[in-house]
Here is the input.
Amino acid sequence: MKYQGGCHCGKVKFEVEAPDDLEVEDCNCSICSKAGFLHLIVPKKHFNLLTSEDELSLYAFNSGVAKHYFCKTCGVKSFYIPRSNPDGVDVNVRCLDTEPKSLKIEKFDGKNWEQNAHTLAHKSK
Here is the structure.
């Protein structure tokens, strides 16, 4: 299924190909818990940014591998390149305009990221 999504103000728009029934992660790390991000990790080939990258601002911290992209206008982070899957894209399910048939939310212990990141590696394949 192709999902449409984007930021609050509409300047950042994307589409993502994913199953009708989604299984996503709710991470308790410092950045995800504060932002309320629900993780849908897909291969890069299943993600298409429909607007210009000029609408995005980049934030990277710690190792610099994760690339957190925010709308320059409204500040919403609707997707990013995750450290766990640098070959994929992580979409915030809360930023999808198209609703999935069903949504299963799994808890992910991001506070102990080093011990748990390997459980996400298959998601961008």
Notes: The beta strands are 2-6, 13-17, 21-27, 38-43, 47-49, 56-59, 67-71, 79-81, 88-92, 102-108. The two ends are 17 Å apart (CA to CA).
